[in-house]
Specification:
single chain; about 220 residues; alpha/beta; Rossmann fold; six-stranded mixed sheet; four-stranded antiparallel sheet; 10 strands; globular; binds adenosine-5'-triphosphate
C-alpha cells in the first residue's frame, strides 16, 4: 500500500529547564489512505506531539517526514499544513457565533465555487453525518457535544485534506455518543478514503481502529 505520510528516523524533544528531553526517538512509521489508526499511550508519552509533527506545527530535530514520498520541508511546512492535513480537537474548536453550516463553509477552499454552492455542500456533509437541516442552520452553541463534534468532522471533510488528525475527539462525550463519533471516524477512512490518525486514551476507540500504535519510551509499536 502506498504510504501517504511517513516518519523517517524522527527524533524530537523539548528543552526543559535548560535540558533537552527527548519525546520521540528515531521513530519510523508510515500511514496510508483508507486506514483508521489510533495512537494510545501513557499521559505525557508524546501523542499530541506526534500529531503536531504530522501537521508541521513542530519540526523534527532529526529525521524527516514525507508526504507522498516528498519531504514536507521541501513541500513547505505551511503548504503541508494548509493542504494536506486537518485537525479535530476534543473541544471541537468551532466558531461560537456562527451556525453549523457557516462553520463547515469556513473549512472549504474559497477558490472557484459560489458561497451558495459552498453552503449547499456544507449542508449535504452535515446531513450525511446525521444533522438535520434545522440543526445545521442553528448556532453551534445550541447543539449537543456530539452534534458539535459532527460539525467539526464535517468541517474537516470539507477541507479535502487527505489526512485527518484527531486529538481525543471523544474525550468530552458520553459513552454512547463517543461510540457514534468513533463509527464516523471509521467511515472517514473506509467510506471517504481518508488517512485518519486518532490520539486517544480510550481502549474502545483503539479497538475500533484498523491499526493501533502504542507510544511508550519514545517509540511507536503496533499492538
Ligand atoms: N511546548 C512544550 N515545551 C516543553 N515541553 C512540552 C511542550 N509540549 C509538550 N511538552 C512535554 O512533552 C511531553 C509529551 O507531551 P504530549 O502532550 O505530546 O503528551 P501526550 O501523550 O499527548 O499526553 P496526554 O495524554 O496527557 O495528553 C510531556 O511531558 C509534556 O509536558
Amino acid at each position: 500500500m502506498e504510504a501517504l505520510l511517513e516518519f523517517k528516523d524522527v527524533t524530537f524533544g523539548y528543552v526543559d529547564g535548560g535540558k533537552r528531553v527527548e519525546i520521540l526517538n528515531d521513530v519510523n512509521v508510515s500511514f496510508a489512505k483508507g486506514i483508521f489508526y489510533t495512537i494510545i499511550g501513557p499521559s505525557g508519552s508524546g501523542k499530541t506531539t506526534t500529531l503536531a509533527l504530522a501537521s508541521a506545527l513542530d519540526v523534527p530535530r532529526k529525521g524527516k517526514i514525507h508526504f507522498l514520498g516528498k519531504d514536507i520541508k521541501k513541500i513547505g511546512y505551511s503548504k503541508h499544513r494548509r493542504e494536506n492535513v486537518v485537525l479535530i480537537f476534543q473541544n471541537y474548536n468551532l466558531i461560537n457565533y456562527l451556525t453549523a453550516i457557516e462553520n463547515v463553509v469556513l473549512g472549504m477552499e474559497v477558490s472557484n465555487s459560489y458561497k451558495g454552492e459552498r453552503k449547499k455542500k456544507a449542508l449535504k456533509l452535515l446531513n450525511d453525518l446525521g444533522l438535520t437541516e434545522d440543526e445545521a442552520k442553528r448556532n453551534v452553541l445550541k447543539l449537543s457535544g456530539g452534534q458539535q463534534q459532527r460539525v467539526a468532522i464535517a468541517r474537516a471533510l470539507a477541507s479535502n485534506a487527505d489526512i485527518i488528525l484527531a486529538d481525543e475527539p471523544t474525550g468530552n462525550l458520553d459513552q454512547d455518543t463517543a461510540r457514534e463519533i468513533t463509527t464516523i471516524l471509521q467511515e472517514l477512512a473506509h467510506k471517504y478514503h481518508k488517512c485518519v490518525i486518532v490520539v486517544s486514551h480510550s481502549q474502545e476507540v483503539a479497538d475500533a481502529s484498523d491499526i493501533a500504535f502504542h507510544l511508550k519510551n519514545g517509540t511507536l509499536v503496533e499492538v
